[in-house]
Amino acid sequence: xxxxxxxxxxRANDRDKRALEFIENVTRNADEVQAQVLAAILTRNAxxxxxxxxGLNGRTDRATFKKCLPVITYDDLxxxxxxxxxxxxxxxxxxxxxxxxxxSSGTSAGERKLMPTIQEELERKTLLYSLLMPVxxxxxxxxxxxxxxxxxxxxxxxxTPGGLLARPVLTSYYKSRYFKERPYDPYNVYTSPNxxxxxxxxHQSMYSQLLCGLLQNNEVLRMGAVFASGFIRAIRFLEVHWxxxxxxxxxxxxxxxxTDPSVRDAVGELLxxxxxxxxxxxRQCSVQSWQGIITRLWPNTRxxxxxVTGAMxxxxxxxxxxxxxxxxxxxxxASSECYFGLNLKPLCxxxxxxYTLLPNMAYFEFLPVHRKQEEAGVILxxxxxxxxxTLDEKEREELVELVDVKLGQEYELxxxxxxxxxxxxxxxxxxxxxxxxxxxxxxxxxxxNVVLSIDSDKTDEAELHSAVENSVKHLQPFDAQLIExxxxxxxxxxxxxxxxxxxxxxxxKDCSVPSSVYEDCCLTVEESLNSVYRQGRxxxxxxxxxxxxxxxxxxxxxxxxxxxxxxxxINQYKAPRCIKFAPIVELLNSRVVHSYFSPQPPQWAPGCRxxxxx
Length: 614
What we know:
35% of the residues lie in helices and 21% in strands. By secondary structure, it is α+β, with helices and mostly antiparallel strands.
């Protein structure tokens, strides 16, 4: 870990001042900065194949840009991206060489999307990271007097046929010099040595990071992970392995299951026999209730830094239980396509989190969204908007600039990046909640079309329906028919898992369906889902086995009756494909007659099955 140089506190204070001044400057001059960003992107990429195809001819003004270039989705770029992946080094999208692909949690045709990036994007990411603690220091003092216990992990990576790495955005960052060779910063000292973060074995990485956090428990002032789901998995891991941790601490000897030499060396520098600490951990973990376990084991912890917006909001009650009600802080808003902005009020309630988009990160446009409220809105919370993939001329004209969005209106985010994405639809729906100077602030509403999500997975309705259709083929030999179904992301288990509620009709009364067939149905659903889901199941262990709950005949009629009793129109009612509302979940669970789980993880391997364009 970096050593603390002399006079570092004064330099940290100066850094905070400069960071806050930077935020003030870019937000006060948001429109001017946006014009400069677009001009810079179009100037540098003027000779790219993509811009020339649409006849931009070196012009950099907004009007020409909007007139000439279409608003696009990933599928519109797939042929260009596959050419780059297969080794074409000509300036297709960007004048700067594509340094690697960042694999998105979003998918296309069942595979992770490949987002081209350039080397300098790491500098922009690092800039945004450098603003987080100066903002937090305005609300909470003394965070330089201790350490952050964060669970950082790398994930699998692959190489394209052209030799470019394809990996998640955070894996790219953690393996870069910007993370590995970062200068000492008293506000960003972590309990996890770099080798424990960079260990490719998820089990060894989790084990060693937790152990290091326990060894430094009184120094921890803040804890966190990227997603709330990942943080909860870490606490569950502790529940399973705390006895071994106690043994390691008591004896000063690291568990033999940790075999990575660099991890053993790094942990060995911290691990010495400490029976007193081992007894303390044992007393806390052996208590039947784990409510407040975080503040019991790490008594100086002041907040939990995790994403709890969007699909992650479902984990808030569990986090509150384990943390004893510590503040849940969401610091920044980012994706594989681009890093967008930060939360300038980090201690607000999770339901009130709004992100200020920084105008220097990319060129932003916003497509107005008019969501249709679902019949009996209690069935589907925050229904995803049905926005057409292709926009007509009138819809393109509706796009507005960053500074022209309207308070209370919802928009789909559209970005133009230095790496060569032009008028690209990210798929996130945002609601304008206010302004900081001239820069708007947005609440994350939802991801377009997503019905199920446990971790970084995103399953939409069409994909789920296709998977169910594939699975019910197993029922045909038994003359069984699927009458209706819905789904639920069950986060009461750790890790969470998908639940499908099936209502069946057995056309031959004397014939029953064996349990093994239902298990085959579960596995077929999983095999039919996208690679992000399958990686979560097979490699990351971030998603539990899929479950099918068979309900009594007539259950979905009862569900309709419930919706009608709450004001739904019988002429327009249709069974929801995903449920979240607690009374609906309770109704369905009360009608379950059998439950079956997937017997094994689905197949998954790093890389893409469709590198080559067809």
